[in-house]
Amino acid sequence: MASTASQPVSFLQDKSRGSGIFSWIFSTDHKRIGLLYFWTILTMFGIGVVLGLLMRLELIAPGETIVGAETYNVFFTLHGVIMIFTVVIPSIPAAFGNIFLPIMIGAEDVAFPRLNLLSWWLYIIGIAVIVVSMITGQGPPDTGWTFYVPFSEFTTSNVTVAAIGVFIMGFSSILTGLNFLTTIHRLRMPGMSWTKLPLFVWSLYATAWIQVLATPILGITVALIVLERVIGVGLFDPAKGGDPLMYQHLFWIYSHPAVYIMVLPAMGVVTEIIPTFARKHIFGYKAIAVSSLMIAFAGSLVWAHHMFTSGMSDTAVMIFSFLTFIVAIPSAIKVFNWVATLYKGSIQVEAPLLFALAFIFEFSIGGLTGLVLGSAGTDIHVHDTYFVVGHFHYTIFGGTMMGMFGAMHYWWPKMFGRMYNRGRAFLAWAIIFVGFNALYFPMLIMGLEGMPRRYYDYLPQYQNAQVISTVGSWVLVVGLIIMFYNLFSAMKKGKPAGRNPWGAATLEWTVPSPPPTLNFVGQPVLERGPYDYKGVVVDE
Amino acid sequence: MNDHKDYQGAKLGMWLFLFTEVLLFGGLFVLYAVYLSRYPESFHKAGQDLNPVFGTINTAVLITSSLTMALSISALQKGNVKLSKILIMLTICLALCFLTIKYFEWGAHIHHGIYPNSPDLLKLPKGEIVFYGLYYVMTGLHGVHVLIGIVVLSFLWRFVHTGKVSQNDCVMLENAGLYWHLVDLVWIYLFPLFYLIV
């Protein structure tokens, strides 16, 4: 550590605006709000993981093992709702975006700090409403996270309350996006031109546009579900002239772009990590920046590929299939640029890099299996099978969450001013990597062999693969436990970290670790581009 | 933190919010378009039962309220606080007037037994059920927005009164105006869709 005497008070310790829990839950400091999100997301992630473990345990043997069919329906619904709406959608943008976006562009805070606090509160209220839906009424929702009509209109389970919770959380997501867009447009420091923005900021920018433009459609769709159930409007009910297919269209107009809300920020994290540990300027800065926008744009036009078997004209199927393939182009641009950055770099193997590489590996499998699903002919064969489940876990867990873990290991010393045990981080990474693939790869094979998703029972022929998958889930959880233990214990006992332990070039590494309340001591100075490592002083 | 206000930033944020509003209604407009093309005759028949007089008056009321809204902003920008407050109040009155007319219009339909899931409605052909479903949901959601507008404008009246929003710092009133014009604009589309073209 350079000089402790002149260190300003960090945002974690600042008592100038009160102390105790209220100085956190009513704070408008973007870093505190980011941490509030972070802890909430991790808590929800824990719950989601437990539900996932229970499902895997049920599937270890054919027939009823630990729970019956009804409970299993509740498990996969809650696992989906919790993981999608309360974990992966906010994950990186709401936690790490909040903490680092303003610092990376040389700003003191986001454009609307109070709105930012409101977003977190709406998120908490949304979670509370979903929890209420689990414990009141006639049982938790059992529709799957997609709330497909007509079942969601008529099931007696607590869909209405859960839909209201999703609606409220949608609001939170919109406000975060709106805040980030305004922040990026208005609060960049002098000299921080669009081509000098760190690429993580670019990915947040593209994400924020999707949040603002797609989420309202989800809002109106779940609002209509509530209206259908409460006053029986019937806009999706064939008996009243409505069309259930219209529900699927509206739902996926949001929910497909939403997967890019999930994965773009993770791509942004990977783009920060790779050049830092390759000690090399990012290859193809502009291509990566533009590909984020291309993914956001093209990704908004592909929703009906979730509906190839639902009933559509052949023309529509072909157009949506074609557009789906288009999305592979900007995604591949990113992957090639990352690999090109690593090529002939002076690679330094650290935990964040390992998670970034795991991202590339898992996400490539997720992306390529996505092409199998996106092409209409093969989709008919694997639709609604474990192949789909394997595919989206490879993209969302292998993509977003690996990016999130990478972000945690990359920015932990900055956020808490202490370094974790690197050896243990390697070990955790290796176990997670093995467990992850053991858990999800058999699903791809079972899917190709015809194992349908969302069943609590299966034919004996699938048992071997199911058992491997369940054992994989245990290995994965062991890895997660080691990883979190390592990170949490570092908060108190870790070796104090300096300003710039990785020798990175973006602005957040020029401020003390953890950053002071106003982010910068004095005016921030922009000395170099975000990937310009020449002359960067490593400060462990 | 820092008290400096970013005028452009506040405006940008508001416009982004308006995008989300357009898309919120957009989902319903998509449903309208699909169902109109599926049941053109039923839509025509059901549309005959809506009273274009109510609709026309309400359109005039809402457009006038947009005018008073715009004038109240100009008045404040020129420093005439008193006039600005009167015009905000006038806007609120016109909004209430709109809701009252809407209340009688909905009331008449409900009185005739035409409301979502009512036995009389369910006897009608499917296209007409959908038409009324859309009618209630779309004008209802619009009505909610008018109601929110009234609340927002009441607060702004208070802020102008206390000087929190003033000649030098009127972006909040301008943003409220933007919102109000959007509410007006949505109605400009709802009116022909339900009262005229079918």
Can you give a write-up of this model?
The complex is a heterodimer of chains A (540) and B (198). In chain A, α11 (314-342) runs antiparallel to α12. Chain A has 540 residues and is an all-alpha fold. In chain A, strands 1-2 form a two-stranded antiparallel ribbon. Helices cover 66% and strands 1% of the residues of chain A. Chain A is globular and about 65 Å long. By secondary structure, chain B is mostly helical. Chain B has a single domain, classed as Up-down Bundle (Four Helix Bundle (Hemerythrin (Met), subunit A)). The longest helix of chain B is centred in the last third of the chain and has 37 residues, at 126-162. Chain B starts with 6 loop residues before the first helix and ends with a helix. Classes of the chains: A mainly alpha (540), B mainly alpha (198). Chain A binds chain B through residues 28-29, 108-109, 111-113, 115, 174, 177-179, 181-182, 185-187, 212-217, 219-221, 224, 227, 231-235, 240-243, 246, 249-250, 253, 518, and chain B through 1-2, 6, 8-9, 12-13, 16-17, 19-21, 23-28, 30-31, 34-35, 38-39, 42, 116-117, 122, 125-130, 133-134, 136-137.
Q: Which features does this protein show?
A:
heterodimer; A: 540 residues; mainly alpha; Cytochrome C Oxidase, Chain A; two-stranded antiparallel sheet; 2 strands; 66% helix; 1% strand; globular; B: 198 residues; Four Helix Bundle (Hemerythrin (Met), subunit A)
What is the helix/strand order of chain A?
HHHHHHHHHHHHHHEHHE
Low-confidence stretches of chain B: none
Number of helices of chain A: 16
Determine the CATH topology of chain A: Cytochrome C Oxidase, Chain A
What gap, in angstroms, lies between the N and C termini of chain A?
A: 7 Å
Task: Please report the total strand number of chain B as a whole number.
Answer: 0
Beta-sheet strand percentage of chain B? under 5%
Sheet-strand content of chain A, in percent, reads under 5%
Number of domains of chain B: 1
